[in-house]
Structure formats: C-alpha cells, structure tokens
Amino acid sequence: MLQNRALSRRRQGGGGRRPPAAGRRTPDAECYHAAVDMCPRKRRQQRLATLWLTLLCAAVITACAPAAAGAWARHTPVPILVYHHVQGYLAGNYLMYVDTSQFASQLRYLRSHGYHPVTMQQVWDDWTGRADLPRRPVVLSFDDGYLDQYSNAARQLRSYHWPAVLNLVVHNGTALRDAQVRRMVKWGWEIGSHTLGHPILTRCSSATLHRELVQSRRVLEHKFKVLVDFFCYPGGIYDRRVMRAVRDAGYLAATSIRFGAATPYGRYALPRIAVYWGESLSAFGGRMRQAVARAH
C-alpha cells in the first residue's frame, strides 16, 4: 500500500519517498503493526496504565497548586487590622498611634463580640482548603517593628493567648531586639516581610526591588527560623511591576492599606483596615462589619 502511494505521488509530479525494501517496516508501519499485533488484553492494560498516570498527574498538580485561578476552596472575607505604635499619641500621626487603654478596649471588644484573631497562614489554609477558620476571624497586623509593639501590644495579646502578625523591617525603622522578636514568635506571632529598609518600592530599580523582596525574606527566615510567606508593602504603595516582583519572589500574598476585608481574589493587594487614634468602639466594630459585608 505504501509503495502504491509513493508511485502515485511520483506520477503526479511529487517527489515522494523511496519505497522501503521488501520486508522492512517504516516508522509509520511499525506503529501500525504494533497496534495490530497487540492483543485486546494488552491494549486494555495500556489504557488503564494511561488512565492511572493521568489521574496521578492531576492529583500532583492539585496538591502543588491549590491556589491556581478558580481553584480556591473558600473565599472567606477576613478583616486585617493595621497597627503601628501602641503608646501615647504623637501629634499629627493619628494613623500611626493608639493608646494602650484604647488597644485594651479593642481587645475586649473583639472577645465580647466573638472575634478570633488568626495569622495570615491560617487565612491562607482556609482559602486553599487545608483547614477551617473559626467564626469571625480577624488578623491583627503590626507594621515596621517598634519597641512598644512588644512591650504594650504583645504582652496584652499574650494574656488572651491570641496571635498577631509582625510585618518586620529588617534594617531600618525597627527598635525591636532579636530576642524580643523570638519571644513574640514563641507567643504565636507570625513574621511577614516589610523589606530591608522600607523604601517606596515603585521608585526602586528592578535590581533593588528584587533585593528588598528576596533578601528580606531570606534574612528573616534565617534569623528567626520561621517561614516568611507573606509581604507588606511599605507605605501601602505598589503598582503592577511591584506586584509581579512580589509574586516572582515566591510570596503567597501581600497586604496594602486599601480599605476592605481580604479575600483570595487579588491576593497581591489584600486590603486592610487602619486603626485610628481616638476611634470609638462602635466605629471600630462598624468599619470591620462594613468591610466584610462589602466583600461578600
């Protein structure tokens, strides 16, 4: 048959391939004869082997990339509160300070209203189906790494046995000693990267941006023996280039200061809720409820 086809093409002006020698099989013929020679039992075994291999590959892909687009197990909205200093007020910086008594009142409010502080890793595990969040979850995040976050915030949280997130600047802007950070980790705090030196990332060159993201994570993980999978934008400032760099650096998600409750959609620009100096408890709770309602 192959010889006839070749002759036919040659008569029509086509070059055609030289017909194979008698008794010699071409690659196409080898595949054809292999299929003919295979008994039904062997064909069935081959189909089963192919099916099992396909299922195994699908299982591996699902396990390794549970957060692929459209693969979120849940999209639980979670309010993430933003704190900086927990101490006396410094004029003109009402977004950076809460008084210790105000902070204590807010913790009592959270407990009396059924809120349960969690870490970003717990949020991520809920979104990806690895674990369930408690009812009314909330993340308490503290940026930069100030001494009063240890002396005034961490000590109060410890009495509740509640975790928090410390978005730590590695070199500049922090007064926390390494021993204090290790103690906070022991008390259940999670460490997030806030860069090496708190630069405005949109103004950084690509090389500087890469160093701020990668080196900060590496230093924090080595120094405190923890995984650092979440990032916080300095000043809450970012653009598409910065978001792509954060993703490429291997972070699971990043937080901003845009108002709202966090959901897995847009995970490299998760919104948070800033806590104001002198804010009433009704306003404090109302803004959390509003953010969650808007995210549903």
Task: Describe what you observe in this structure.
It is a single chain. This protein is α/β, with parallel strands linked by helices. The protein folds into two domains: 21-64; 80-295, Alpha-Beta Barrel (TIM Barrel), CATH 3.20.20. It has ten helices and ten strands. The chain has helices at 2-11, 27-37, 40-64, 100-112, 120-127, 147-160, 178-186, 206-224, 240-248, 281-295; strands spanning 80-83, 85-86, 97-98, 116-117, 137-144, 165-168, 190-193, 230-232, 253-259, 270-274. Strands 1, 4, 5, 6, 7, 8, 9 and 10 form an eight-stranded parallel β-sheet that branches. A two-stranded parallel sheet has the order 2-3. Helix 4 runs parallel beside helix 6. The longest helix is centred in the N-terminal third of the chain and has 25 residues, at 40-64. It starts with a helix and ends with a helix.
Tally of alpha and pi helices: 10
**Can you name the CATH architecture of the largest domain?**
Alpha-Beta Barrel
Rg (CA only): 29 Å
CATH class of the largest domain: Alpha Beta
Q: What's the SSE pattern?
A: HHHEEEHEHEHEHEHEHEEH
In terms of DSSP E residues, the strand content is 5-15%
Give the beta-strand count.
Answer: 10
Tell me the structural class. Answer: alpha/beta
Task: Give the tally of structural domains.
Answer: 2
Helical content class: 40-55%
Shape: globular
